[in-house]
Amino acid sequence: VQWQGELSPVVSPIYIRDEQRDGDALQQVVLGHTPLLDGETALKALDSAVKAYDLGRGAWPTMAVLERIQHVEKFLALMQLQRDEVIRLLMWEIGKTYPDAAKEFDRTCDYIRDTIAALKQQDRDASHFIIEQGSLGKIRRVPVGVALCMGPFNYPLNETFTTLIPALIMGNTVIFKPAKYGVLLIQPLLQAFLQSFPAGVINIIYGRGRETVGVLMESGKIDLFAFIGTNKGASDLKRMHPKPHRLRAVLGLDAKNPAIILPDADMARTVKECVAGSLSFNGQRCTALKILFVQQSRAADLVDKLSSAISELKAGMPWQQGVAITPLPEPGKTQFLTQLLEDALDKGAKLQNPGGGQTSASLFTPALLYPVNSSMRLYNEEQFGPLVPVVPYNDINEVIDYVVNANFGQQLSIFGQDPQQVGELVDIFANQVGRININSQCQRGPDSFPFNGRKDSAEGTLSVVDALRQFSTPTLVAAKYQ
Ligand code: G3H
Hints:
By secondary structure, the chain is α/β, with parallel strands linked by helices.
C-alpha cells in the first residue's frame, strides 16, 4: 500500500543536547516515522493474507516444504545484510547496549537457521506407518490459517521472529504488527520480506492497536494469535474475536520470577546471577528475576554483596563501553518505578545502595530494597524495570506458598548446594513454572529450549521444535490397500 495518510513519529528514549537552545536543555530525537494506518487499511492487509491462504494447490500453504524453506533461506540471507542498521536502531529505539543489540540480532539469525534445520529433519523423518494389516497412514502437518503475530518492545526482533518464522515456514499466511517501540528497525527488513515471499504471505501493519488489530480480531478471520506482551493486551484482543474457541493462541505474558536463596547457597555465584538476572537490559525482560527470597541467616551477607555489585553498574548511553543501565523506552516508566519504590519505602523497606532509584530524563538508577514484605506493591506487581526487592524468610514453606499462590508461573531460580533439598523443591515446583534454573538466573535462551509458563504467564510452548508443532496441525491420511 502506498500510504498517503497520517504518519506517527518514532521518538528515541535517548535525550541529546538541544543545539538551538542555551545551557543544558535536552531534547529527544525523532528517529523517523511509521504509517498510522486506519482500520480500513488494516482490513486490506487481512484480505491479502486470506487470499494468499486460499490460492489453491501449490500456493503457500500447500507448497512443498523444501520450497517454502528456500523462501525463508532467502529472507535470512537478505536480513543478514541489514545487521548493522538493525543493531543501530535497536540501540536508538529501545536503548539496548551494543553487545545486547548485537546478541539479539545474531540469536535471531541462529533461531531461523535452527528452525530451517529442524523442519528439514522433520520432513526427512516423516514416513508412512502401518495402521493395521492392509492399511497405511501418514501424518501431514498442515498450517492453521491466517496468523496474527505481535511482539514486545524489549525483544522486538527476537521475540517477534520466534513466532513469525515458524508461522511462515509451516505455511500460515501472516499479519505482523511490530512492537510499539522497536518498530522502525523492521523497515530495513521490508525489502527482504518483499523479495523473499509471495505476495500476501506476509503483511505488515502499523498504527494504534485498537484501530488496526481490533478490527482484524472482530472480523473473525484470524485463526492463530501469536502474542508476546502483557496479559491485558492479550485478553483485550482475544475477547474481540467472535469465535474465541476457534482461535489458536500462542502467548508469552507477564511474569514475576522469584529467586530462592537457600542457607547453603554459594554467595558469590548467587550475587553474580541475581544481578544479571534482575538488571540485564534494565530488568526489562519477561524472564528477569523480579523478587529475591533469602533465608534470614544469609540476608545481611546477600544484601551487602548485592549492594556493592549494583553500585558498580554504570549508567549511560547504549553505545558507551561498559554501560549496563540505559534509557527506558516506555513513556511514564520512571514515574511508575518511583511509585513502586516510594510505596516500599513508606511501608518499611530501606534503600540499600546509595544513589539508587534516581531519575534523570529516561534513565532510572537501579534500586535494591530490603526488607520487602507482602504489604508492598513490589511483592506481587511486575516492575519490568531496575528495582530489586529482597524478601527475608524463616521457613522455606513461606516461599513455597508464594510460588504456589502466585498468579504467574513462568520460571524460578533456586540457589543452594544440597542436592536433596534442591531436588525436593524441584519436585514441588515442577508443575508451577515452565522452567526451573538451579544456581543460575532465569532466562529464555538458548532459543531451542521450550519456552512457556503456567497459570497467567503463557499459553502454548515456543522453541524451535515445539513452535513447528504450535503453528501447524497434524492431519492423518489413512489409506486401505487391501
Ligand atoms: O523477555 C523475554 C526474552 O525472551 C528474554 O530472553 O531471557 O534469553 O534474555 P532471555
